[in-house]
Amino acid sequence: xxxxxxxxxxxxxxxxxxxxxxxxxxxxxxxxxxxxxxxxxxxxxxxxxxxxxxxxxxxxxxxxxxxxxxxxxxxxxxxxxxxxxxxxxxxxxxxxxxxxxxxxxxxxxxxxxxxxxxxxxxxxxxxxxxxxxxxxxxxxxxxxxxxxxxxxxxxxxxxxxxxxxxxxxxxxxxxxxxxxxxxxxxxxxxxxxxxxxxxxxxxxxxxxxxxxxxxxxxxxxxxxxxxxxxxxxxxxxxxxxxxxxxxxxxxxxxxxxxxxxxxxxxxxxxxxxxxxxxxxxxxxxxxxxxxxxxxxxxxxxxxxxxxxxxxxxxxxxxxxxxxxxxxxxxxxxxxxxxxxxxxxxx
Length: 346
What we know:
Structural class: alpha/beta
């Protein structure tokens, strides 16, 4: 028999969080500080030990004191069984393998929320699509949390606004009430595909913005890049059935601006180093955390081809990352494309 969920029950929910990177840890701690007992699945035993004994995640979120309501474990079943809500925060390229391990441990009435941003390379699926396929959950039990939010700022209670989207407004409203705090304001949305595309493609555009900054080309260039990047995201989204209003909101332009300009953005950092002349292999060797835009650029270009959508900025980012194109040549190609009206959706 399915349990009856209500907004009033949000306060008493049993919650598990899958993934203890910087974002997963920050969100788990936010919920734990709100008073929930949070079981947190941690991949690395040494990170689990640090959270358990020192109340800190020194690898992914150093310097942040973690709540005593946070219970880390490397046993995935412990995090999943008997939960009313499960938050999944793993890199997009391991979402499917993680979800396969989760299958069989998720009750059919559990709400599953994705806070991961990316598009799967082989299938071109978004993260909720991967979860739906792998876990066999209906769309009204799935949600996605997205918006302009850096893990460290959320952990430090900087006022942050995000959106949660679900096919079911009832589910979205429950998740909204679970996550909302005086420093973390949550809006609802029913445009799941738009929210996921906005949160995924913006990472590719952020690499481009970082390249512009690394080449020291100035604020004019970066502003134009962000604006035309948003046009690409919107164009793809509309072709895939998204609500155009989504791209003017938190999961669209809001997240795009943050990721393209914020010093805490890993994708912007990767781009900046590329613009300064570093090679991708060298950049990756220095990084502990994933810059989702690197892998997502493959998916975005493939998806653009499949949907017959022109995405020149995303294509040039792919060319720089995987075809050894120079940023200078990529910029020249973008600037010398055929002239056209601004609003012809191309």
